[in-house]
Amino acid sequence: QRATVGVEGLGGIHAGRMCDRREEVGHRHHVVDDFVSVGAGLADEAAALDAGEFDKAEQAFSWYQEYAYRLVEMEPDNPEWLMEKSYAHSNLGALIIERGGGDSEAALSHINSAVELNKQVIEMDPDNPVYQSELGTALAWLADSQLSACDLGGALITRQESVAVAKKQLE
Predict the structure, then answer these.
(1) How far apart are CA 117 and CA 72, in angstroms?
(2) Under 8 Å between Cβ of 161 and 117
(3) What is the DSSP letter of 75?
(4) Lowest mean pLDDT segment, chosen from 33-37, 56-60, 157-161
(5) Could you tell me if residue 29 is left (phi over 0), alpha (psi between -120 and 50 degrees) or otherwise beta?
(6) Helix and strand tally (H, E) in the chain?
(7) Which residues lie below 8 Å from residue 88, measured CB to CB, with a gap of 6+?
(8) Category of 52 on φ-ψ map: left (φ > 0), alpha (ψ -120 to 50) or beta
(9) pTM, whole model, 2 decimals?
(10) Model confidence over 38-59: pLDDT tens digits?
């Protein structure tokens, strides 16, 4: 079973948190406002990805990544912004995989970045079940990326790690 694009991290839950954080970032609120606007449209772009409209999805996911990087530059130790950066990499990696015939190394690079960012956030907040769940999803995408790159052994190990994360959540 392949991993699926999760819209909840793109425009729903996280855009709401960003709206709540506007006052906290003070004079930098315009970046958050812009990011919320980009994030709010990503549900449509995820649907575009599912419909095979790859160029439309790529444009939106690239904007999303740009704003995620800007947020992390403003607050490098903010786990929510680091997760947004992780989601941005996951989206672009998933796009490459779903497009097919793409650059498997680029997909691997994006997904590896997403996993590493997610692990960094878990170190900051180890008891957060959302971050744990997102790690399982990122690992599933990494397994798909490894499979696309014909790394069958790596894909199996990573898929097993994804399952272990899911089992841990059930405990």
Answers:
(1) 11
(2) no
(3) -
(4) 33-37
(5) alpha
(6) 8, 0
(7) 61, 64, 65, 68, 69
(8) left
(9) 0.74
(10) 454 555 666 766 777 788 888 8
